[in-house]
Amino acid sequence: MEKFYCAILAGGLSKRMNSKLSKVLHKVSGKTMIEWAVDAVKPLNPKRIFVVGNENNAEPLKEVLKDYENVEVVIQKFPMGTGDAVKTIKDLVETESLLYVAPGDAPLIRTETVKIMLEKVKNRNALILSAELPDPSGYGRIIRDGEKIRIVEHKDATEEERKIREVNGGFYIFRSEILFETLNYIDMNNAQGEYYLTDVFKFMGNVEVLKVEDWREILGVNTREQLAEVERVMQERIKRGHMERGVTFIMPENVYVEHSVSIGEDTTIYPFVVLLGKTKIGKNCVIGPFKVLKDVEVGDGTILL
Question: Do 59 and 163 share a domain, yes or no?
């Protein structure tokens, strides 16, 4: 695998969350969204991971990420868009390397998907992760003009372009030297009055598009409603993983399990159970309804009714 860097964009102002807490610091299944984003790429050993925040959330980001090796918080001083955010790390990334760019508010991306992206980019200048959504509203559309690939943001799209269901997932891999050269050509002439990172594709050829199998991987969070949807999907994943390892959930949709909980095989979990923190449940246990367990250890064969 080629040498690569990672930029996670976390400088958005998060106005629609109606929260004093930075959007990427909201938790999904017990872990902040920014940690999910970092953890998705960490196993692939990038040379450095840059988290691009703003002046208001930089210190909280540093606190949350303080135990991560090789992760650096970089400040985008003025909120001038995703293109400008990527420019902040220009002098920190070597030429002749790959740069993986990802949003900090999309916690469902899998490490396996990022690995496939790195494998597929090969001799391309860039790779875009796309998805076909049931409702593409709000997402940038993938526009194919022969071999040329463009991305048109929803606010700038025509009615005809808005009918396209294949959308930009917000995850990319670029040849670093080509990206930073192309960033010089983009402008703020758009509905948002920002430097869109996606505008680089107007000036860049030899671009690959990879459509993700599970469109939910690209789901981003801008509102509390979207946060709840992402939580629902993450809970499905977590409980499916436990079931594959031999745990029985009676009505799993009515059980909440944080990501750091461990459960032994042949344990049965009844409805309305909440398992939090570093709770460790042994083998052959029964956890009855309406139990809330946080940071506790339950020995093998225990029955809690």
Answer: yes
The Cα 179–Cα 197 span in angstroms is: 10
Look at the chain and report how many structural domains it folds into: 2
Domain span including residue 95 = 4-218
pLDDT digits over 102-130, tens only?
Answer: 999 999 999 999 999 999 999 999 999 99
Residues 6+ away with beta carbon under 8 Å from 62: 73
Count of Cβ atoms closer than 10 Å to residue 158 Cβ: 9
The owner of tokens 């691009």 is 52
- Considering the entire predicted model, what is its pTM? 0.95
Both 183 and 53 in one domain: the answer is yes
CA-closest candidate to residue 288, choices 251, 258, 235, 260 = 251
Beta strands in 55-146 (DSSP E): 71-75, 98-103, 126-132, 141-145
Looking at residue 200, what is its pLDDT? 95
In a domain, 151, yes or no: yes
Phi, psi (rounded to 5 degrees) for 50: -105, 125
Q: State the angle between helix axes of 33-41 and 111-121 in degrees (0 to 180), rounded to the nearest 10.
A: 50
Structure tokens at 138: 């709000």
Q: For 16-55, how does the pLDDT look when each residue is reduced to its tens digit (9 = 90+)?
A: 899 999 999 999 999 999 999 999 999 999 999 999 999 9
Angle at alpha carbon of residue 15, lines to 12 and 21, rounded to 5°: 75
Query: DSSP secondary-structure letter at 241?
Result: H
Q: And the tokens for 11?
A: 């400088």
Tell me, what CATH number does 98's domain have? 3.90.550.10
Residue 46, burial from CB neighbour count under 10 angstroms (0-12, 13-18, 19+): buried
Does residue 140 form part of some domain? yes
